[in-house]
């Protein structure tokens, strides 16, 4: 896929929409993980709206340890890894819960893709 702002915007909601859950248990887990999503939603939505998230490199009060795009990636992947660890630790799944967990995995994988695309688009905006 070509890295364009339009392609990014098409993919964005796959990573952040509220799924239609088949099970209450997984819905409650998803709600409990919302803070992890919210941390990433800000910068990734900035790219959706503006085509970049340069403020992460510029705002030293909110992001004091981020100096490079590789730092941005490490910071963001930390949250997708934490999310993945949580959903992969769920045991004794019913068939409906297995389906819901697959949806959450798809969303998390999409967020990882969005992180890489966001960095590429942000780097392009500085050229």
Description:
- By secondary structure, this protein is mainly α.
- It has one domain.
- It has helices at residues 5-16, 24-32, 34-50, 55-58, 69-88, 95-125.
- Helix 1 runs antiparallel to helix 3 (34-50) and helix 1 (5-16) packs antiparallel against helix 6.
- It is elongated and about 50 Å long.
- The two termini are 21 Å apart.
- The mean pLDDT is 95.
Average pLDDT taken over every residue: 95
Number of helical elements: 6
- Cα(first) to Cα(last) distance is 21 Å
Domain unit count: 1
- Percent of residues in helices comes to over 70%
Shape estimate: elongated
Low-confidence stretches: none
What percent strand?
under 5%
Query: Biggest sheet, open or closed, and with what strands and sense?
Result: none
For the secondary structure, the number of strands is 0
Q: Helices and strands, in N-to-C order?
A: HHHHHH
Using only C-alpha atoms, the radius of gyration works out to 15 Å
Helix/strand structural class: mainly alpha
Give a concise summary.
The chain is mainly alpha-helical. 73% of the residues lie in helices and 0% in strands.
Present the secondary structure layout:
Layout: H1 5-16, H2 24-32, H3 34-50, H4 55-58, H5 69-88, H6 95-125
Helix pairs in contact: 1-3, 1-6, 2-6, 3-5, 3-6, 5-6
């Amino acid at each position: 896929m070509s890295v364009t702002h339009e392609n990014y915007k098409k993919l964005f909601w796959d990573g952040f929409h509220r799924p239609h859950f088949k099970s209450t248990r997984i819905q409650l887990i998803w709600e409990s993980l919302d803070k992890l999503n919210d941390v990433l939603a800000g910068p990734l939505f900035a790219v959706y709206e503006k085509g970049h998230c340069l403020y992460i490199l510029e705002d030293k009060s909110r992001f004091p340890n981020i100096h490079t795009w590789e730092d941005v990636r490490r910071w963001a992947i930390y949250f997708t890894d934490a999310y993945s660890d949580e959903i992969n630790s769920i045991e004794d799944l019913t068939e409906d819960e297995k389906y819901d967990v697959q949806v959450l995995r798809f969303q998390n994988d999409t967020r990882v893709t969005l992180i890489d695309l966001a960095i590429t688009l942000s780097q392009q905006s500085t050229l």
